[in-house]
């Protein structure tokens, strides 16, 4: 009987141990997975195993006993049926490259990172496909409105997993779904990845307008026009426009633009009073994906010849010392246009 139980133990690995990776590791552990949580930081791994708390990223939240932190990638990936990559976009290629030798061909690969690779402008599934030698059709992306701080507290959360392979998407759905973490499937990988990345830019803008005390009317306009930018870029990259009305689009946009949990919102809020970008980032102490994504989206908009006025103004604020107030005034003072024309 014991042997039978041992053979049916489900194993998963989560790379890396930031706030979102730790929250998703908890979801998997709550679903009965033995989870190896990989980090490069030996002190962090020891502390998590000793105290059952990831004190830097999710202080005071007890982690399930089925989570074990490790710095040994071979150990982390040994015999796992699911490998969940949650490295920051700038580190994804390096982490995937290191993981590749230890991954079995049967392991389901899922990523939950929102951003582009800045120098190549590639989406994360493309980066993983290149480094892991997997067909992009077999990879899964998880996205949607989901603050780590709420997920780990088991507050109701609904996300989407996207893959060209419905079988792979449903495998991820089965692994992650439970009574407080609802998971939908979607075949539109491009749309889900573009929406998840670009909404961080709009969240920076939302923090900026809140920091300038511009009020709810301005923020509602920013979110709506921001969704139009996401839709325009996503559509020319091959996305299904309906995706942007779903969880990965409007859902994630709303949660990231209206919550103080949002790093991107907080960074925008701090930028509003003239705090320099370097200082904002060092005070945050965590990766603010929207900053790198602004640079990538600016380049993508030029490459695809797409109008993205919010992205362009934020680019000026972040990288060309434009005053935040002037940037918002520029957005409000653009030439008059027809709303429906602007949506396409």
Molecular structure report:
With 344 residues, this protein is of the alpha/beta class. The chain folds into 2 domains: 2-187, Rossmann fold; 190-343, N-(1-d-carboxylethyl)-l-norvaline Dehydrogenase, domain 2 (Orthogonal Bundle). 52% of the residues lie in helices and 12% in strands. It contains 17 helices and 8 strands. The protein has helices at 2-7, 19-30, 42-51, 73-77, 92-99, 124-132, 148-151, 166-176, 189-211, 215-236, 247-258, 263-271, 277-284, 289-304, 309-319, 324-332, 339-343; strands spanning 10-15, 33-38, 67-70, 82-85, 108-111, 140-143, 157-162, 181-186. It has an 8-stranded mixed β-sheet with strand order 3-2-1-4-5-6-7-8, sandwiched between helices. Helix 5 (92-99) runs parallel beside helix 6 (124-132). It is globular and about 65 Å long. The termini are far apart. Residues 1-6 have low confidence and may be disordered.
What's a concise summary of this model?
By secondary structure, the chain is an alpha/beta fold.
CATH homologous superfamily of the largest domain, by name?
NAD(P)-binding Rossmann-like Domain
What proportion of the residues form beta strands (DSSP E)? 5-15%
Q: Output the CATH class name of the largest domain.
A: Alpha Beta
Strand line-up in the sheet with most strands: 3-2-1-4-5-6-7-8
